[in-house]
Amino acid sequence: MQDELGLNMYDYGSRLYDPARAGWSNIDPLTEKMRRYSPYNYCFDNPLRFTDPDGMAPKDIIVVGTKEYKQQVMADLQKLTNQKLIFKTGANGQGKIEFAGTPTGSKKPVGTDLVSKLIASKHETIIKASSDGDNHTSYTDRAAAEGREKGGSGATVEYNPNNRGDGESGIKNADGTTGRPPQVGLGHELGHVEQGIDGKVTSTKVIATNPDDNNARTYLGQDEIDVRKNVDNPIRKEQGAKQRALPVVE
């Protein structure tokens, strides 16, 4: 909040937003690329669908990183759905994923519904390179993700396209082997994003034998168990991959 001179405007970096009149104090820096809209509009006059965290341009599901990383993420997202995806790069270098055309190829209802839900959501999903080589999901607003506040939450996914979950300490399959295609790992994390959008994240942990830890008896998050069963394995089936060994809850 910029309260100099008593103006009480919000500083978005590129522009100042005046909540009293629900408009910007100066024109959109990207107005030449968006000529159909007023240069003073906010989120294309549709704030229920878009967000504009930096005053530059609305975003839905975006990918940040190197050109090669964006291309790999795009390719892996496309593998999850039979609906054609397109990748648009904004002036700030971030990539936005959108649907285009009609579905083709073999049906992938679970993956297609998941990706389309995230694209259509009013919440932002950010995919970026993993900082430690593993895949992770963190929520923009944990309280909203858990349903303690209304509206659900967006999330940031740290994704490693080279992580196949194999090796001795890898992800266990039902047949005792380890490993899965990288896009399955991405789908798994998007399953956690969906939980946050729906406000159904929980901190509940249960005692279970974990196949990924040599069937050790341990505490596992109910969220993780639900995603493995309801998202991970159905996506594996669509991808022609081996089913994942599931925890046994006591």
UniProtKB/TrEMBL annotation:
Feature: compositional bias, Basic and acidic residues: 230-241
Pfam families to which the protein is assigned, alphabetical: Peptidase_M91 (PF14891)
Region entry Disordered, spans: 145-188, 230-250
InterPro entries: Effector_pro_NleD-like, Rhs_assc_core
Name of the protein described by the UniProt record: RHS repeat-associated core domain-containing protein
Organism: Flavobacterium pectinovorum
